Amino acid sequence: MSTPFEILGDACNSENQDAIKETLRQFLESSPTSSQYYAAHKKISELAEKSGLKNVKLTVVTSFTADLLTQPLFLHQYLNGINLTLQYVPYDQWFLALSSKGQIDEFSPDLVFLLLHLNDVAPVISYSHLMDWINVTEEKEKFLKSLFSAISAFQQRSDATVIVGNFCSQKPGFERYFDLNTDLSKSQMIEDYNRELSSFCSTNNNILTFDYSGIVADYGRASWFDNVRNFSNKSAISSKAIPSLARELSNFLNSIQRPRKKVLAVDFDNTIWGGVVGEDGPMGVRLSGEYPGNAYHAFQTFLKNLSASGILLVATSKNNLEDAKEVFDQNPSMPLKWEDFVVHKIDWADKYLNLKAAADKLNLGIESFVFIDDNPVEIAMMRQFSPDVKCILLNGSPANFQDKIVRTGHFDSPTLTSEDFGRTLSYQADKKRGEHEIRTETIEKFLSELGLEISVFRSSNQDISRIAQLFEKTNQFNFTTKRYSLSEVTEMTQIDGIDLISFALKDKYGEYGIIAVVVLKHNEGAATIDSFLMSCRVLGRNIEDAILAVIEEVARERDADRLLGLYSPTAKNQQVEGFYVSKGFEGIEGSDSDCMFQRTLSAKTIYQIPPHTHISYPGES
Fold first, then answer.
1. Where are the domains of the chain?
2. DSSP-derived secondary structure for 201-234
């Protein structure tokens, strides 16, 4: 019988990408030896050069030797469509490499992973805190000051995203039992390190905290570290633990590199409760008490928490609507409420059709959906008729449902924005707007009664994370679909010849948050709309007309004599194809892949803000 390594080799020889990826997954799950990792890396790297994958460069900066990361990390990234190139900074040069121009700058990475062990950089707290406690706080302040200054100095020279691992104790000493019962607590001090690190990262753009201490705890500290090799050759992490670090780091990189899914479509019977409501009744389904009711209750709490992070819940259940709703109305053990779902598709239609209808109602692409169900037939139908939907079969024990969802990484994100936290409430407000629109005789009257207020932000204190999120996810109302990264967005706020303008919206039903972004570039009398993207949720409000009026106003302030608009056609942005012409722009011949349009400002009257919209400029005098 062939081994996973041999099967991988056969697949590589065939050059069938689907077969290669499937056998590579099996290979990585088979606990390969170091020599097998090397051989697989050699085979796959040759294929990666031919396959046209996205190239990403990562610099690894550690206080110990970490070269063994190369092979497993590369292979995990290959599975996610990335051709990864790694650079290692020698372990004793982390401060110099970050604070001064040199080898990292020459490599010009997209990402930097910084992982320092306290044993290497803070010896007092690591080895001698009880006999030298007076210097523990001084050591912490001195080290963190050096660390933060080095990162800040690097950020002045590079737009690479910096990922910083937090800290943990490598080896428990004789203080393990009394440590938390004394004022001279080593573990409490390490928590102080991590709090200050987290605060620094969260208040600086393009710096992210990587929960290294949590990963070590999950794996087991005694098995993670190799004390002998640490002292002999600075190989602090055991060879058996390195693949786990590679997998976790790869998952973290994926959360940065790919957009988070937006919607979770949820089955009811034997998914969020035990049993079938049509047979067991609203009070007979299992939701509390002993197993499995307690597991379903915990799973509902997980879904509610997921919703609070910005993931929209859609109900899709083959049931009588009245039966399903009775569980929410009558069963007091339900953590989830009816209104936690932004769309309800409770009927006997095929679920793939209901998901398409839900996507249309939410004005979202079907590729942003994840579907969960306990029925393998429903999963199979969804995969066949709506292959862009990611499916998760929730079979087996409900105690494992949460883990099955988390392991997919579909909802991973390195950060959350204020819009994420308010997304479900925002869609619930959309429903009220829709009901209002139905009751109103004309669209003009509806818009005038909404009380639309647009806030325009041009200063550097914009919500950079939300702006980068819009660049990453917006496809339909997006003229050029340029994908500016968090670091590139940050850099634009500092360039004099670029206006990065964001727009927040609210009305009488609530706040949408930031719904649109414009990048306006100025050069020799021309103001070019490099990017213009807007959330599809606000279409039909003439918000785009108000934004265009603001763009022209900014262009005139800069003494531009012409306003240029770019349009790069894609499969998803056809709705904006005729926008510029409809607003008085004229097409320019001779452009390549982009279509270019021009509005001569000196010969045109000023474009007017729609009368139903109020514009404000918070923070500007």
1. 1-52, 53-257, 263-408, 436-616
2. HHTSTTEEEE-HHHHHHHH-HHHHB-HHHHHHHS
